[in-house]
Amino acid sequence: MTTASPPIRPRQVAVLLYPRVASVDVCGPLESFGIANFLTGQRLYHLMTVSIDGAPVPVAGGFLEIKPSRGCADLPDRIDLLLIAGGPGCFAASEDSALLAWIRRLEPRCDRLGSVCTGSTVLLASGVMKGHRVATHWLEARRLETDRTMAEQVEPNAIFVNSGKFWTSAGMLAGIDLSLALIEADFGRQLALDVARFMVLVLRRQSGQSQFSAQLMAEATEDPRIRRVQLHIWEHPGGDHSMRRLADLAAMSERSLIRRFKQVTNGTISRYIEDVRLNFARRLLETSELTIQTVASKSGFGSAATLRRAFERRLAVSPSVYRASFGPDHARTVGDAVQDTIRMDLESLVMGKSAW
């Protein structure tokens, strides 16, 4: 005799709106969660749209208004995920004291809080993300990097970033990448794959923000000498990247290389090397069962302690915690725990019995 699985508590998901919000930033992530409900025939997510007072909100472009399902005062006591959508209205919203006050008031009630695209500008303005890394649209990342108080928080090439309870995504459709990652964290990799396949998407893009990933940025660099250095670092993350060796590769003096690299990339060589090594280490932690020390050696950090310091400084988590959240063991554990109850209900789909 088999025992019935306990019912799943629907996760409360809300997207916060404001005038001139981008409609795709709102609908993209919500559609992903809705499709998870649809494919499984279960109410895994309870979805809401929210404005300060519950009044309709005009989207950017003025082609429609979104009538929110509720106002901020009507949200449940506990919120599993609150996302702030982006759009050209983000700058006015980031100066709206009432909206920012609501974000600060809601933050302790949210298990996870985040943003899509330039919703990061509103989230950062609220002050709740101090010390946490953030992803945003690549143009907004460039603007924020000119602000000394914000520059250290921005991950300019990331599709999405998880830093503690905060989940933020890059531009527009990257909000769907973010929602797929959240579905995977909640209910396992298989359901996230099913949702991605249904939406005719890949589960996880292999690069950063379109042509703005570290590798393609290297290919796009106008100076062939700097491009040669960048590609060498990308192809050999664990190699010897002493300034003398890189200068020889570029056929430049060390001083000229340092100056020219900063001119054409708006960043330092040491930062670029660390970015590449972090990306490589993260990929090894996500896809392999190598020891932390081996990951550190292969990615060029040398020691597990150095790798740990880089992770904690840049990602606000340790390598072991990162692997527990995104590595192969996590995918198996989560998948095993829910595989009997969380799966595509193909019969209901074919018969038209599943509700979006």
> What is the CATH top level name of the largest domain?
Alpha Beta
**3D shape:** globular
* Beta-strand proportion: 5-15%
The assigned CATH architecture of the largest domain is 3-Layer(aba) Sandwich
Q: How many individual helices? A: 18
Structurally, the number of domains stands at: 2
What is the name of the CATH topology of the largest domain? Answer: Rossmann fold
Helix-strand topology string: EHEEEEEHHEHHHEEHHHHHHHHHHHH
The whole-angstrom Rg is 22 Å
* Poorly predicted residue ranges: 206-219, 333-340
Tell me the span between the first and last alpha carbons: 32 Å
Mean pLDDT: 85
Q: Structural class, judged by helices and strands?
A: alpha/beta
| E-strand count | 9
CATH superfamily of the largest domain: Class I glutamine amidotransferase (GATase) domain
Largest β sheet strand count, sense and barrel closure: 7 strands, mixed
Strand order of the largest sheet: 5-2-1-6-7-9-8
